[in-house]
Amino acid sequence: MPDKVLEEEALVGGFVTPVVRIGDTVHRQAGDWTPTIHRLLTHVRAKGVLWTPTPLGFDALGREVLSFIAGDVPHDLPDWIWSEQVLCDVARALCQWHEATRDFPLAEARWNFVAPGPLEVICHNDFAPYNCVFRDARLVGVIDFDLCAPGSRLWDLAYTAYRYVPLLPGPEVAAAGSEKSPFTSAVTLERIQTLLKAYGAAANITPAALVAATIDRLHALAAWTEAHVRQHGVAELAQHPALYRGHASWLQAWRNDFT
After folding, report:
1. How far from each other are the two terminal CA atoms of the chain, in whole angstroms?
2. To which H or E segment does residue 65 belong?
3. Backbone phi, then psi, for 64, in 5-degree steps?
4. What residue ranges do the domains of the chain occupy?
5. How much is the pLDDT for 172?
6. Percent of the chain with pLDDT strictly greater than 90
7. Is the pLDDT of residue 1 over 60?
8. What are the DSSP calls for 67-128, one per residue?
9. Is there a contact between 66 and 56 (Cβ–Cβ < 8 Å)?
């Protein structure tokens, strides 16, 4: 009997790169940077970072092929995403990623993104809930490494803090926009400290430095998103730059209150 032909299943949730699942593999549009990303994933997996997908080359259509990581990607932000355990799991995983990338060879590497600051590690640049895979409310995988690029720990950790602390207006703030934090400012400060403690003291990052970096990160993200919308016409992202800048303004005012 002929081998069974597996159907493509579109995976939804992202706005940047079309992704399909075929059996136990994921197929994504490739770019000039994809061979570098595959070498990077092979590099970190050899160092024990096994929650990343395994690079499996390219298919007949030129798409990259990666192993599929089974679990839940929490786009809708269920209540458990705000648990202290998740916050610590994420911080430890990001630190593990950074440590494993410190000696990745940069010669002939090609990247799809530019991360400012000192070149300490390879940043994921989008270590957020919509790129994390969970089972039973525990982190088991991270996906979408297209935006990886050399940069600083602080730059990468800032965006993760924005999404996971989260560094957003809390219930006591009458701020416009749909994205809000479920936590008061006092609890948010405690969660920043929890994140930094779980990430590890080696980075020597203070809460004030993390918030300041997040403000810069949000302004850079707004500019990047505007350019992406102009180039690719992704209507779903058109309102995001104003949201990021609004959150940056709120963070600046909030930072002035506690520093």
Report:
1. 70
2. strand 64-67
3. -70, 150
4. 9-67, 79-258
5. 79
6. 77
7. no
8. E---SB--TT--GGGGSHHHHHHHHHHHHHHHHHHTT---TT---S----S---EEE-S--S
9. yes
Write the pLDDT tens digit of every residue in 200-233.
976 789 999 999 999 999 999 999 899 888 887 7
Give the residue among 112, 94, 129 at the shortest CA–CA distance from 14: 129
Q: Choose among 49, 53, 52, 50: nearest CA to 65.
A: 53
Q: Which residues pair with 85 in a beta bridge?
A: none
Backbone angles phi, psi at 37, to 5 degrees: -65, -40
Kindly report, residue by residue over 69-110, the tens digit of the pLDDT.
Answer: 999 999 999 999 999 999 999 999 999 999 999 999 999 999
Q: Tell me, what's the pLDDT at 13? A: 58
Question: Bridge-partner residues for 158, per DSSP?
Answer: none
CATH number of 79-258: 3.90.1200.10
18, amino acid identity: P
Largest alpha-carbon pair distance within the chain? 71
- The residues pairing with 118 across neighbouring beta strands, listed in sequence order, are none
* Band of residue 239 on the pLDDT scale cut at 50, 70, 90: confident
Residue whose structure tokens are 């010669």: 107
DSSP 8-state secondary structure symbol assigned to residue 27:
E
